[in-house]
Structures are given as structure tokens and as C-alpha cells.
Design a protein that fits this description.
Layout lengths: L14 H23 L5 H17 L14 E4 L5 H11 L4 H5 L28 H23 L11 E6 H5 L1 H13 L4 E7 L2 E2 L2 E2 L8 H7 L3 E6 L3 H12 L5 E6 L22 H11 L10 H7 L3 H18 L3 H11 L16 E3 H13 L5 E5 L3 H4 L2 H7 L11 E3 L4 H14 L3 E7 L3 H13 L5 E5 L17 H6 L5 E3 L4 H13 L5 E4 L4 E3 L5 H9 L3 E5 L6 E5 L3 H11 L5 E5 L3 H5 L3 H7 L6 E5 L8 H4 L4 E3 L10 H8 L3 H15 L1
Helix pairs in contact: 1-2, 1-3, 1-10, 1-11, 2-3, 2-9, 5-7, 5-17, 7-17, 14-20, 17-18, 20-21, 22-27
Length: about 675
């Protein structure tokens, strides 16, 4: 075995000796990084080090000077607990420093416990297993869609968007159902630029995987329509051959690497205890000796670094040639326009569709109309529904722009099927890839299935647009299982997540526009099944109001005695109730977005909802939790703090007290108690 004492002869070593020693150095960096922090994962990174080193050193396309070069290959560490391995790779490239490795898992470091998208070279935030796999499929979709759209405009655009998405996944990833749901869809869609390395070391936190899993994943993925290879995860030639075969397939590929937890350690190979902890220092010392490494911490000799970076000059040329091609292609006005709108994200000025004032229309239908309208101006707006096109009103979009399929890779509609969690994770990946704005539709009650991905969208500042219809007990006959009661407030609990519950068609269009233009925050639109009256307010007034999160839609002369704060369908109910209470000076406020309202000045908020001098009534067809802050100690929060029932929506409104007569009665009874 080659050793550090022989480094002066490094140039004479054969290529395999150089590669093996490079892997040994990487393993040394992993052990030292985790040991220095006294926290983290060692076994998995050592298990996967050979594949990752070969991939980064020989195959991954990137710009060493610019981690954000658009046509780079994406590397997704779905097994986010193996972060020490990814950080070692980024250190070898030069995007992270030695100090970064030494501050692993420390406050404000560039090397947090799990990869975070803000770090140079990290494509998405991972850690919750399976979600990296889901996001990678979204990235592969975005690449394929953009590549085909561009090449349809000009043959000269071939190669402008042309890259792979590589994934490192673990046994734990495979056990998460999101992985199999995503894999099924990826195989169906023929996402051939998606290449997964499955580090099958058969060990996890609690012991060997055979305690809980006997799945033949080769058979499963073959059934999903993937190209499947099984290799020795430490045979470098086998790794190279597998990657090269995967690159030319017309389907997604999985490379199942038979590996060993903590491979290379002196006395703990295969030990599941290495999964989530540093190796003991004496074990590290013995392992370094076995690997031919010196006892020094964070050892990276110049010879190894130079060997790892031997392809950089070729990468620089690739980037330079690409830049030249891009400049030439953008002389074509069609290419230039698409590149500007999508890749550079220069959105055109967006107006609003026309709705007939005074008529009734469900906000879900208004969403569909608005989607069709904006889609004509935004060629990179793509998405679909979790098998609810008729209910989500995305069917016309699907018919107009066609389904993305193996034989139609410029289709803008994604038929996600009944896969809410994979849909949400893929949307995150699409957004993070860049160049495409994704939307996805389902019932609000099924936001529960998506929540882990919604949370990651917020953490990553991903611009994704979730259409959640059937937003209250008004769903009716489907009963309590399909009637979201707690969901609106549960979504509002997610930081950096805008929840819009528009009052009518016009508010829906404005909220949709805000979601499109907000590049830092994911958005959810909670929409009605039932028709709502369309406001006669001008769009300009509504836009200004939505921008502030809450605004006055009706106001009686003088200082208000009663202030209604309502959302969605209950704004109309508040208006109707206020008319009935003509003996009181009433103000009706629509609060389509609580998150935006909370960002307003104290002056604006106190002017809208005064702290004293009036009675505040909050009104929403959901739980009352969270509304007390607006109602105040003497106010009244009207909602529903129990599950629904199966009956027509109008009957349920009567049953649950959501008619104008009943709301008025509750308010007057409350006033009597106060007096």
C-alpha cells in the first residue's frame, strides 16, 4: 500500500495507487472533521468515499471558479447525515477552507450538521431522508424540460442546458416511502439525466438493516423502469463503468454499490455504532496507519490536491466554450427572450385576468383562470395536480400545454398522480435548479402529506406555489376526513411561508401574482370549493391591500364599533353580518395573508385594528387558535374547534353557526356579556 512516506515518488505511482491514496486522504479528513466536532457521522461517509471521490474527480461537470455556473451537474447528498464527505469534496475543490472543516457543526460555520443550500457547492438542504431523492427528480425534470424547450427553438442551443443530477442515497433513504413514490414517477417520465448511487452498506443507527428490511431494491427499481446496476462499491473501474453506462441510458439509473459501514477503519468496519458518532481517537490513529496516512489531523498533501484537481483546466475550457455558445445563441431573439425570462428570472410585468363583478365564482376556479392567463406570459411556469385536475381547475392548463412524458419532454403539465409528498419535494428541486417556476395542486387536507417538503421549501427559500383547494368544512359531503379544520393555522406556523386565503376571484389573482414574484418565500393559496361574490374594488386597491397582508374592504362612517377580521369565504360572511348589524358602525377587514400583515409597521396595524375603542371579531372556518392576538382579550374569535361532518356545505354552515344570522347572534350575546 502507498504511504505518506513515499509521497516524494507520487508522480511515479500508477493511476490506481494515486486514486486509492486520494480516497484514504478523504477518509482521514472525514474522521478528523467529525472527531474535532465530537459530533456527526463517520461510518456512512467512509462507506461512500470511493464513489464520491471518483465522481467528483473524474465525471462531475462544474466551474471550479463559480459554484453557481448554470450548466453544472447537480450533486445531491440525499443521505444528508454524510455531510462530512461532501464537505471534504468541497474542500478539495477549493470552495471550502480548512477552517471550515475545523468548524464543522459549530455556530455560523459553513459546515453545518447537514448540508444547507446556502453553502457553495450544496444544491439543496438535506437531512430528512428521502427528500434529497425527491428534490433530485425535480432537478432532473427541470434540466430535461429546459433542454428540450431551448433545442426546439434552435438547433444551435443544443448543449446550453445539458447536465446530470447525481444522487448519493443510503439504506435509510430507500426505506422512506417518498423515495419509492418519486422513483416510480421518475421512471414513468423517463428522467434519464438522473443517476443515483445507492450506498448499500446494510447498517443503520439501530443495527443491521435486516432487522427491518429485506426488499430487493434492484427488482423494485427495475419494475419502476430504471436502469439498474449492482457493483462492488470499492472497485474503481466498476464505478467508472457504471457511471458511463448510466450516462447513455434513456431512463433514470440506479447504481447499487455493495459497501461496508466505516470501510477502511482498523477495527470497526461494519459496526453500526460508527453511523452517528466520531471514531475513538485510538481507532482513528490505527486507521490512519493502516491507510498509509500520517497521524497529523486534517492531512491533505499538495500532491493529492493536485491529483484531485487534474481535470480543472479541462473544466475551465468547457465553461469558456459554453459561455461563447451562449453569447452566440442569444443573438437569436427567441432564445434570448426565453433565457432572460427563465434562467435570469426577469419576469415581465404581470397584470390580471378579468372577472365579472357581482357574479359568484369559487376561488379554485379563479386560480385556474389566473393560471391560464399567466401561463401565456411565463413559458417556464410548469406544474400539475396530484390527480385532482377537475377539482383543482388545472385541467385546462394540462390540455393546453400537454403532459410532460417520455415522448413529450417539453410538456408543461406534470401528471403527478396520487403522490402529494413526492410532488412537493420535486417542486422544491425544480425551483432550486433554477429556470422553472413550479406549482402543484391538491386538497388542503392533504397538506399533511406534504408538510416535510413544505418545511424544507421554507428553509431553502424556494419559490414554489401550492394550490390547496377545498379549504374548509364547505367541502361538505366528503366528511371530516376531507374537511381541513386545523390546516390553515398549521401552515401559518411554518416560518418563511406565506399562506394566502383569498376572499374572492380578484384577491386570488393578486395572491397568485405575489407568489410568482416572491423569490425568497414559498406560497400556499387556500381556495374554496363553493362560489364567492366578486368584489367591485379595483385591482389596484386589492393589490395594495394584499401587499400589506390585510386591508379594509368596507367601512362605515366614523370610528368603528365592531371590526370584523376575516379570511377567504368568511369575508363575504362578515360583510353580510355587518349589513345586518346596521345599528353598529362596522369595519370589515380582509386578511388574505397573516404573514405579510405581521411585517407591516405598528402604525399601520394599529390604524387597521385599534388596540381599544372597538370590538374585534375574527372569522375563519377553521380553528380559533392563533386568532386571539387579533381579537384581543375582550374580542371574539368565531371558528370551528372540532372536526366536521358529512352533509351538504350549506347544511354544515347552519350546523356550525356560519350563517349571518348566527354570527350576528353570537356577537350580540358576546356584547351582552361584556356589558
Amino acid at each position: 500500500m502507498s504511504k505518506y512516506k513515499d509521497l516524494e515518488n507520487f508522480p511515479t505511482w500508477n493511476p490506481e495507487e494515486k486514486d486509492q491514496y486520494t480516497v484514504s486522504v478523504v477518509k482521514g479528513l472525514i474522521m478528523d472533521t467529525v472527531r474535532k466536532a465530537n459530533s456527526g457521522h463517520t461510518g456512512g461517509p467512509m462507506s461512500s468515499a470511493d464513489f464520491s471521490t471518483i465522481l467528483f474527480k473524474e465525471y462531475l461537470q462544474f466551474d471550479p471558479k463559480d459554484p453557481d455556473w448554470f450548466n453544472r451537474d447537480r450533486f445531491i447528498l440525499s443521505a444528508g447525515h454524510e455531510s462530512a464527505l461532501q464537505y471534504a469534496m468541497l474542500y478539495l475543490i477549493g470552495w471550502l477552507s480548512l477552517d471550515d472543516l475545523k468548524s464543522f457543526r459549530q455556530l455560523h460555520s459553513n459546515t453545518p450538521g447537514h448540508p444547507e443550500v446556502e453553502i457553495p457547492g450544496v444544491e439543496c438542504t438535506t437531512g430528512p431522508l428521502g427528500q434529497g431523492f425527491g428534490m433530485s427528480a425535480g432537478m432532473a425534470f427541470a434540466e430535461t424540460f429546459l433542454r428540450h424547450v431551448l433545442e426546439e427553438k434552435s438547433e444551435d442551443a443544443k448543449g446550453l442546458v445539458d447536465h446530470f443530477t447525481y444522487v448519493l442515497a443510503s439504506d435509510g433513504d430507500m426505506q422512506e416511502p417518498i423515495t419509492l413514490g418519486t422513483a416510480s414517477l421518475a421512471g414513468h417520465l423517463g428522467l434519464s439525466r438522473l443517476i443515483v448511487f445507492y450506498d448499500s452498506n446494510e447498517a443503520q443507527i439501530s443495527g443491521q438493516t435486516n432487522r427491518c428490511d429485506s426488499t430487493n431494491y434492484a427488482t423494485v427499481f427495475n419494475g419502476f423502469g430504471w436502469h439498474v446496476q449492482e457493483i462492488d462499491g470499492y472497485n474503481h473501474e466498476a464505478i467508472r463503468t457504471a457511471i458511463e453506462k448510466a450516462q447513455v441510458m434513456d431512463k433514470p439509473s440506479i447504481i447499487i454499490g455493495r459497501t461496508i459501514m466505516a470501510m477502511g477503519s482498523a477495527g470497526m468496519e461494519g459496526d453500526h455504532n460508527t453511523h452517528g458518532s466520531p471514531l475513538p481517537q485510538d481507532e482513528i490513529n490505527a486507521t490512519k496507519e493502516n491507510l498509509g496516512l500520517p497521524p497529523d489531523s486534517f492531512y491533505l498533501p499538495d500532491e493529492v490536491k493536485t491529483h484531485f484537481q487534474s481535470r480543472f483546466e479541462s473544466l475551465y475550457k468547457t465553461v469558456s466554450d459554453w459561455n461563447t455558445q451562449l453569447s452566440e445563441c442569444r443573438k437569436n431573439s427567441d432564445i434570448d427572450s426565453l433565457w432572460s425570462i427563465s434562467i435570469e428570472d426577469n419576469l415581465p410585468e404581470l397584470n390580471y385576468p378579468t372577472f365579472e363583478e357581482g357574479s359568484n365564482i369559487a376561488t379554485r376556479k379563479a386560480f385556474g383562470t389566473t393560471l391560464d392567463y399567466y401561463a401565456t406570459f411565463l413559458p417556464h411556469l410548469v406544474g400539475g395536480s396530484a390527480d385532482l385536475e377537475p377539482s383543482n381547475y388545472t385541467g385546462n392548463f394540462a390540455n393546453t400545454y400537454s403532459d410532460f412524458q417520455k415522448n413529450n419532454k417539453s410538456g408543461r403539465n406534470i401528471a403527478f398522480g396520487v403522490r402529494e409528498f413526492p410532488m412537493a419535494a420535486m417542486m422544491n428541486g425544480i425551483s432550486l435548479h433554477g429556470g422553472v417556476i413550479p406549482f402543484g395542486g391538491t386538497f388542503l387536507v392533504f397538506a399533511d402529506y406534504e408538510r416535510p417538503a413544505l418545511r424544507l421549501a421554507a428553509i431553502q427559500h424556494a419559490r414554489v406555489i401550492h394550490e390547496f383547494t377545498h379549504d374548509s368544512f364547505w367541502v361538505g359531503e366528503d366528511g371530516p376526513t376531507h374537511q381541513p379544520i386545523e390546516h390553515a393555522m398549521a401552515l401559518r406556523a411554518i416560518p418563511n411561508f406565506n399562506v394566502f386565503r383569498p376572499a374572492d376571484a380578484k384577491e386570488t389573482a393578486v395572491c397568485f401574482k405575489f407568489a410568482l414574484e416572491n423569490r425568497e418565500t414559498p406560497s400556499a393559496l387556500l381556495l374554496t370549493r363553493q362560489g364567492l361574490p366578486i368584489s367591485d374594488m379595483d385591482y389596484s386597491e386589492i393589490e395594495e391591500g394584499v401587499r400589506k397582508g390585510a386591508y379594509i374592504v368596507d367601512d362605515w362612517d366614523g370610528n368603528p364599533e365592531i371590526i370584523f377580521v376575516a379570511t377567504g369565504s368568511e369575508v363575504a360572511l362578515a360583510m353580510e353580518t355587518a349589513v345586518r348589524m346596521d345599528d353598529k358602525k362596522c369595519r370589515v377587514i380582509s386578511m388574505p395573508c397573516m404573514e405579510l400583515y405581521e411585517k407591516q409597521s405598528t402604525e399601520y396595524r394599529n390604524g387597521l385594528i385599534p388596540n381599544r375603542g372597538s370590538l374585534t371579531i375574527t372569522l375563519e372556518a377553521g380553528i380559533t387558535q392563533g386568532w386571539t392576538k387579533y381579537a384581543g382579550p375582550n374580542g371574539l374569535s368565531i371558528g370551528i374547534d372540532h372536526f366536521g361532518a358529512s352533509a351538504p356545505g350549506k347544511d354544515l354552515a347552519q350546523e356550525f353557526g356560519f350563517t349571518a344570522i348566527q354570527v350576528e347572534q353570537k356577537i350580540r350575546e358576546h356584547l351582552k356579556k361584556l356589558l
